[in-house]
Model the fold of this input.
Amino acid sequence: MSRRPRKPGTGPGTPRPTVSVCRGCCCGTPKIPGVDHAGQLTRLRAAVDGRATVRAVECLDACDQGNVFVVQPSAEGRRAGGRPVWFGLVNDPDAVSDIARWAAEGGPGIADRPDILDLYVFRPSRRLQAELED
Done:
């Protein structure tokens, strides 16, 4: 029996949460003017300071919500009941900082999400959720 390979930053041995940042067709492009997309990634990586994995992904297929970030729980966070949290319209530097701080503190299942981030949370289609969970 063959198994599908796990996505990076997931699985039983993962010690920290993963922040996936969409950089596909509608996120990370000039379609969202006034946002320094490369700077977002740089600031995010610096802010988590190795306490979370940050990865740029091609497309999360939620284009109407660009820029999209998804914070996936660590293995410990998942065991504690944490599930991926999707953030849309992340075009403000303060929102990036708040997401980074939460991920660095442990993210889903470990740390309480700051209330201000509720403004950015959205629920993607069940298909998208399932694809990221695989």
Confidence is low (pLDDT under 50) at residues 1-12. The helical segments are 37-48, 75-79, 93-104, 126-133. The radius of gyration is 14 Å. The longest strand covers residues 18-22.
